[in-house]
User: Which sequence fits this backbone?
């Protein structure tokens, strides 16, 4: 006797293809708003196409790729039900990793894994990704929404991003251009950005209600903890590429992400040069720092050495240039809306970050 087969649809298994279609419809306008002339076709193909014709005049075009995520900041976004800015964080973490060699971000793809697909949530997330792409000048050419019933909780989601940029090999910047006597310039961060959030959650978020997190705090200048920790990561790539195209004589850059200044600025140094950073005293660095950073340092009881390896300490990107070009570089950066400041100098050493 044959076994009777029970009729089970994909929806019965927890995957709503109709909601997926609604989500795609909800993000089409956001995706279109990021388009560049080089984009071939639109959303909906199996693969995304991008013409390289515009770069044929380069001597030696080099493609530069990067991928990253947002990390446990997403857990706070889910707690607060705020999904409109984490997409900007995702783009920032990717595009600002390719710009330190002088690469212009060209196109971006995202991957959204979610427990239960809700078109309105996906639309908020992707609208943030589109905003990040517009700020950095790259096109959002495609992505993937993956519903994972039984693997992820319904309200959980994770994000990954992928970017491809291009730079002409003769115009590449990096450690080979850095020398003793160069000056290190900092660009301010907007806050914690997207690193250190496992610590942030442990010392400042866990055990608090949403109402408590939305209360203004004197220590944060009247801002709520929710607003302070959810402020999106500053995107530097668009302005930095504009400054480079305008002729700013920059030698190298360092994106200050996980590991802080201590474990990122050294990536812009040759093996015989140290970065001597003016750290300041116990009250903080020699530059302004968003109040949420010292607040977290105090809550966690971090030493200065620990703090400079955990948070960005108010610096989202470091720029290295010749001492004679500091004014010119700062003017070029200011013209792009940045507020540059000198944070140190390059000295003889062994390729590490030291403080004074």
Assistant:
């Amino acid at each position: 006797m044959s076994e009777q087969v029970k009729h089970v649809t994909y929806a019965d298994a927890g995957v709503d293809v109709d909601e997926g279609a609604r989500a795609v419809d909800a993000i089409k306008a956001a995706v279109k708003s990021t388009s560049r002339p080089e984009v071939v076709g639109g959303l909906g193909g199996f693969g995304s196409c991008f013409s390289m014709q515009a770069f044929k005049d380069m001597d030696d075009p080099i493609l530069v790729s990067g991928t990253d995520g947002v990390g446990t900041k997403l857990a706070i976004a889910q707690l607060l039900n705020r999904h409109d800015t984490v997409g900007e964080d995702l783009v920032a973490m990717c595009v600002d990793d390719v710009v330190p060699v002088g690469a212009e971000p060209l196109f971006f793809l995202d991957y959204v894994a979610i427990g239960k697909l809700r078109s309105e949530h996906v639309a908020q997330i992707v609208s943030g990704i589109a905003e990040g792409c517009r700020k950095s000048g790259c096109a959002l050419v495609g992505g993937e929404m993956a519903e994972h019933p039984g693997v992820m909780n319904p309200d959980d989601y994770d994000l990954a991003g992928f970017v491809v940029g291009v730079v002409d090999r003769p115009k590449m910047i990096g450690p080979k251009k850095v020398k003793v006597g160069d000056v290190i310039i900092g660009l301010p961060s907007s806050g914690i950005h997207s690193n250190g959030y496992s610590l942030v959650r442990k010392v400042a978020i866990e055990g608090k209600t949403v109402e408590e997190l939305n209360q203004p705090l004197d220590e944060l200048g009247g801002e709520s903890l929710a607003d302070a920790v959810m402020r999106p990561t500053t995107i530097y790539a668009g302005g930095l590429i504009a400054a480079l195209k305008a002729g700013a004589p920059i030698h190298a850059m360092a994106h200050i992400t996980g590991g802080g200044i201590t474990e990122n600025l050294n990536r812009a140094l040759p093996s015989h040069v140290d970065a001597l950073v003016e750290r300041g005293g116990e009250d903080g660095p020699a530059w302004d720092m968003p109040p949420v950073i010292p607040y977290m340092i105090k809550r966690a009881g971090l030493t200065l050495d620990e703090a400079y390896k955990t948070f960005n300490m108010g610096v989202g990107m470091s720029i290295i240039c010749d001492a004679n070009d500091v004014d010119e570089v700062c003017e070029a950066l200011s013209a792009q809306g940045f507020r540059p400041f000198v944070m140190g100098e390059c000295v003889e050493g062994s390729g590490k970050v030291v403080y004074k």
Q: What stands out?
A: The CA atoms of residues 175 and 269 lie 5 Å apart.
